[in-house]
Amino acid sequence: MLIVIGVIVVLLGILIVGLNQATKRAQITHTQALMSSIKQALIRFKEDVGYYPPVLGIDRSLNYKYGSNNPFPQTPWEDEADYAKKVQTWSSVTTLAEYLIGYGHQGQDGYGYKTAAQGGPLYEDENPPIGIRHPGRDGVWGATQAEEDPDLALLDERNPIPPENGGPAKVYGPYLELHDDRLLAAPDPDDPDKVIFPGEAGFDEIDNRVIVDYWGNPIAYHRRLHPPGVLKQSYRALDPGINSFLPKLSDVICLRPYRVLPRQAADASFEDGSGDPTTSFALQSAEFALFSPGPDKMSDLQFVIDQGESRLPMRVDPNQYNRDNVVELGP
After folding, report:
1. Percent share of the chain, pLDDT over 90
2. How far apart (Å, rounded) are the C-alpha atoms in residues 168 and 62?
3. How far apart are CA 55 and CA 224, in angstroms?
4. CA-CA distance, 275 to 160, in Å (whole number)?
5. Residues facing residue 290 across a β-bridge
6. Do 274 and 314 form a contact (C-beta atoms < 8 A)?
7. What is the DSSP code string of 121-134?
8. How many helices and strands (H and E) does the chain possess?
């Protein structure tokens, strides 16, 4: 009897491990499929407006001023070591839901309007709630409404006035349709490292959204660096003689492949925290990247931030935080 019970326990253990592995593989597959759909949506966005969406504030706020967020300076190139650290966090978790679906009020996406009988700050009050206007060549909606700010008053294509009052009739998006409510969350205003899911307290009161993977991690959006406010241009169009390197997405260490085949390997502009410059040709040429920290919900970059360390993250880290990262490159 004891032998039979022991065999059953062993078989149950094997079954549980197998089920866990199968669940993990399914979640990775679903996240990869989701990120592939987002990639295609970003490509369609560019086909319509001429550029990939900008990187919104990394604190999940809707910050449209690029000069302060872009890690490359507006003046001649700064110290490479300083750039190497700053570029690691130049990404956004709010860009995707806002530019591809249209979660945001009128002042944030130039779309939707309220009749005289409607009121309140929620985007649900706007008619219709989902969609965007053309954000203009600097990516800012409603900039002509803020002429007192010369940094924003740049273009003419972002007037949020409704069509019946002479406003623009052209509507863009949504570019992405999510069939699972669990893939859409709201940033927690009290804790930037957390999100609020549908059904939880505070979700409906927040008009900002993030797209999450199948483990509940916000999917981060990275794009090739551009001069502040010039979304159609990237630094690779500049004269290489200005500096020994030009910014590429391979400068973001958490995007570098954990393993690279020799024929696919290239050297990045700088080494990671372990002295390794290895990246891939695909990442060197990518225009944008989507990032998920995977099932362990952790990357070496997050570990460095959490521990308050000053070193750069590592591509192949001792605790293997980056081993299960999921990265989608585009185009």
Report:
1. 28
2. 23
3. 10
4. 50
5. 221, 328
6. yes
7. S-GGGSBS-S-B--
8. 7, 8
Q: What share of the chain is helix, strand, coil (3-state, %, to 5)?
A: 35, 10, 55
The tokens describing 170, both together, are 């052209």
Give 101's DSSP letter.
I
Q: Is the pTM of this model over 0.85?
A: no
| Diameter over CA atoms, the chain | 84
Tell me, what amino acid is at 287?
Answer: E
Q: Are strands 195-196 and 184-187 parallel, antiparallel or unpaired?
A: antiparallel
Joined tokens for residue 214? 């199948």
Handedness of CA 230, 234, 238, 243 (dihedral sign): positive
Q: What are the residue ranges spanned by the domains of the chain?
A: 17-102+173-330
List, in sequence order, every residue forming a beta bridge with 327; answer none if it has no partner.
Answer: 291
Asked if pLDDT for residue 329 goes beyond 50, the answer is yes
Question: Tokens standing for 292?
Answer: 């998920």
Written as six digits, the tokens of 5 are 């019970």
Q: What are phi and psi of 113, to 5 degrees?
A: -155, 165
Strands 265-267 and 278-280: antiparallel
Q: State which H helix or E strand residue 223 sits in.
A: strand 220-223
Residues 6+ apart with CB under 8 A from 307: none
